[in-house]
Amino acid sequence: MRAELTRKYGRLANLALARHFGLTLPPDLQQPLTDFASGRGISAIPQVVTLLDQADAHATEYHFFHWELEFPEVFFDQHGHALGEQAGFHAVVGNPPYVNAVATINFKHHS
After folding, report:
1. By C-alpha distance, which of 20, 23, 5 is closest to 68?
2. Which of 31, 29, 24 minimizes the C-alpha distance to 54?
3. Candidate from 29-33, 37-41, 78-82, 107-111 with smallest mean pLDDT
4. Which GO terms describe its biological process (predicted)?
5. How far apart are CA 12 and CA 24, in angstroms?
6. 76 phi and psi, to 5 degrees?
7. Can you tell me the distance from the alpha carbon of 43 to that of 91, in angstroms, rounded to the nearest whole number?
8. How far apart are CA 38 and CA 35, in angstroms?
9. What is the per-residue burial (b if ≥16 Cβ within 10 Å, else e) of 28-48?
10. Taking the domains of the chain in order of start, what are their residue ranges?
């Protein structure tokens, strides 16, 4: 069930985020796009399917990651209500890009 919800809302999140990466959504198609992507519409015109496919392609190309979908327990309570100011992580630990760090250190050292 969680995988199905993540896939469905992931397409909506991809659609919203792809707009910031150059995907243009015609205003008259925003509701049909939302309805079809969320499963509220059982059929769609070809343009809607094409736009959703383009949004998914942007997600793959730019490696979209939707924190709220991957970690819902951090952003929503047990009833699905947003936690607002209480949501999120206290810290995020990651592996920095050491190649860039070394290049930066060497550049600064030689300047």
Report:
1. 5
2. 24
3. 107-111
4. DNA modification; methylation
5. 15
6. -135, 150
7. 42
8. 5
9. eeeebbbebbeeeeeebeeeb
10. 2-86
Calculate the dihedral angle through the C-alpha atoms of 29, 32, 35, 39, rounding to the nearest 10 degrees.
-120
For 30-47, what is the mean pLDDT? 87
Residue 102 has pLDDT above 60, yes or no: no
Instruction: Take residue 12 and report the two structure tokens written for it.
Output: 């909506």
Q: What is the pLDDT of residues 64-75, one digit of tens each?
A: 999 999 999 999
Compute the distance between CA of residue 17 and CA of residue 19 in angstroms, rounded to an integer: 5
Long-range contacts for 63-72 (Cβ within 8 Å, ≥24 apart)?
Answer: 64/13, 64/14, 64/17, 64/18, 66/9, 66/10, 66/13, 66/17, 68/13, 69/6, 69/9, 69/10, 69/13, 70/6
Lookup: tokens for 52: 């959703």
